[in-house]
Amino acid sequence: LVAPSLPTDPPEAPELIVNVRTLSVTDSSVSEIATCISRNANPLPTISWYKDGVHLPAPTEQNNDLYVVSRTVKEASGLHSVSSALYLRPVKADKDSRFSCQVQYLMPQGRKERARSELFNLTLHYYTEHVNFSLERPSVIKEGDDVRLRCQGDVNPPPEYVFTKKQVTQSPECAGTRP
């Protein structure tokens, strides 16, 4: 008996499960960033990761910077489901990066097809490197004028800045003493 062959079926659209925690750039180890799942395909699809539209060449060996962990399941239907978890040690430059996964699969006549997930960002906690302190109205200031100061830093989460005015009481100055 020869087992019937399965038809070539494209997978379902990629399912993306994103880590919504705030990740610290000061951590010395990787964090799970997201998991991409491709279900019900024949033949077996592959999953790749992208950062800002550029392929991330993630190894499968565990390390301290970047790697993926992939799993394959053969469903009762005979179709394949694949998942890929992306692990990354984020850096401050990743604060504006947009990540995605892509599923690649073969169709009849060897035609390669692709399906890309939606884009996602990381929520990062990072330290201040640059601080800017300025006067909002840099014109001439006279006694009694309202003054607004602005302090900005490239930090996340943004800190709360509090400015206080210290009242100084001046004691009368004596020009000299009389006996």
From TrEMBL:
Per the record, the domain of life is: Eukaryota
User: How is this protein situated with respect to the membrane?
Assistant: Single-pass type I membrane protein
Record PROSITE patterns: IG_LIKE
| Keywords carried by this UniProt record | Disulfide bond, Glycoprotein, Immunoglobulin domain, Membrane
MF GO annotations: cell adhesion molecule binding
What Gene Ontology cellular-component terms does the record carry? cell-cell junction; plasma membrane
Q: Does the keyword Disulfide bond apply?
A: yes
Compartments (UniProt record) = Membrane
Which residues belong to any copy of the Ig-like domain?
Answer: 14-117
Q: Transmembrane region positions?
A: none
UniProt key word Repeat? no
InterPro entries for this protein: CD80_C2-set, Cell_adhesion_signaling, Ig-like_dom, Ig-like_dom_sf, Ig-like_fold
Its Gene Ontology biological processes? cell-cell adhesion
Q: PANTHER family in the record, alphabetically? A: BASAL CELL ADHESION MOLECULE ISOFORM X1-RELATED, NEPHRIN
Protein name as it appears in the record: Ig-like domain-containing protein
